[in-house]
Each structure stands twice: as structure tokens, then as C-alpha cells.
Amino acid sequence: MFFVLIFFPLLIFGNNFVFFKRSAYEEIFKEIEKARVIYLGEAHTHKEFHRFQVRVIRELVRKGYKVIILMEAFQQPFQDVIDEYLNCEIGEEEFLERTEYKKRWRFDKELYAPLWRLSKELSIPLFALNVPTELKQEVKDKGLENVISRYLPPEIVPFEERHEEFLRWVLEQHGDVDEKKFFDVQLMWDNGMAYRIAKLAVGNPNAKLVVIVGRGHVWRGYGIPERVNHLLGDIPQAVLYVNEDEIYFLFSKDFSSEISSTNSNSDPN
After folding, report:
1. Which of 242, 213, 199 is nearest to 39 (CA)?
2. Can you give the pTM of this predicted structure?
3. DSSP 3-state assignment of 30?
4. How many domains does the chain have?
5. Is 264 part of a structural domain of the chain?
6. Is the dihedral of CA 223, 163, 243, 135 positive or negative?
């Protein structure tokens, strides 16, 4: 059995995202239920967190919520292929071949297969979240400021200072990488995926959107969640991401000044 660890309101970061203290799964789920957008930020090879993702989705459906799944593992130009798979027009092998899963994502398919099989089993809409690899290359070649794409919002929201500090730390782990290209690509990813989420949220006002994405895109509520807030206003969002064997939970909601003034030294790094 997989037990999760979270943090109760102790410290506010950025757009009113709040850390939670250690608690049981049932307490996490009560908070998840308040959100329109639910991010399950993974370490891509963390098997237990993938099981946790399936558990959350099953529980939401069991409770009668309309659910939409968005997966970073698939790129948006292949949405028609995903639809064909869900409609039983093609099998799983053809589905993976035509979405170019091995080429564009590469992580063990058995880590992710329970998600798309669950989508098919329970008739849950599944959407590709990621922007195409070709756009990434164009951004690297031309610079983000010189690229116009239907996969990007009209306005690119820049990074906040604390997020930049984190990304510079990440950049140091990559060795000799061009800083501007690195930041341009990260901005492209976060803005592009936020744009996809925002459009689906507007088009499906009664659904909960469950976002399966790498933890770096949702760390401390930065990245995608803050850009969704920029596009839609303060839409309720739950952010969960795994670090080692702990799950960190944040919720975009105003808490009382008494709670927000409480201090904590907890940090996911």
C-alpha cells in the first residue's frame, strides 16, 4: 500500500500556493475535491506515484465527478490518434506507434499504460498536453520572442524571480547548456501546456482536469499552475508533486492571515 505525505497550511509561496503538513490520503483527497485543475507532478520513473495517479482518478470518477485527463507524454498534434484509440478504432500497439511514443517520450510505456487503459475503460476523455518537438527546435533556433504558434498563448508569461533561481539550479545540473535557449524552452513548455489546460477548462466548465506532468513544471506552484491562473484568474488548483518518497501538496486558495504567517523550514529540495 502506498502512503502519502503532505504538508498542512504552513507557508505561502507565489500565487497563494500553500504547503500542507503530513497527513493521510483521505485528507489530501478532501482538498483535491475542491480543485478544478489537479496536477499530479511525477518523477517519470517513480512507479508508486504512477499508481497514485490512477488511484486519484478512479476515486474522482467513483464519486461522480466528470474527469478529463491530460498527459505530458503525448504531443498535441497526435490528438486524433488518441481519439481513435479511445473509440476502439485502433489497438494499443498502433496507438503508440502513430503517436510516436517511443521517439517523443521514451519512458517505459508500462508506467503510463494504466492511465490510458483506465481512460478507455471508464470512458474518460484523454488529451495530449505536450507541445510538439518541432516547436521546441524552432524556439531553440530562432528564440522564443521570434516564434508564433497556435500551441502558444498570445502573451508569454515570464518567470518569477524565485522560479528563475530554481531553474538556474536545474541548469547547473545539465552542464554546458546555453542559458537563453534553456529558459526559452522552459517558458515555451510551461506557457504552451498552460494554454492547453486553460482552453480545455473553459470548454468543459463542469469537469475536473487531472494533469499528468513532470514535477519540474509544477514545483511550488510555479510553471504551469501560475500561468493557468494568469489565463483564467484564480481558478482552484491542487498541485501534488513527488520528491523522493514524499508528496508535496499545495492549493491555490486564500488562507487566513493567522495561517499564512506561520513559519516553516520545510523544503522539497
Report:
1. 213
2. 0.86
3. helix
4. 1
5. no
6. positive
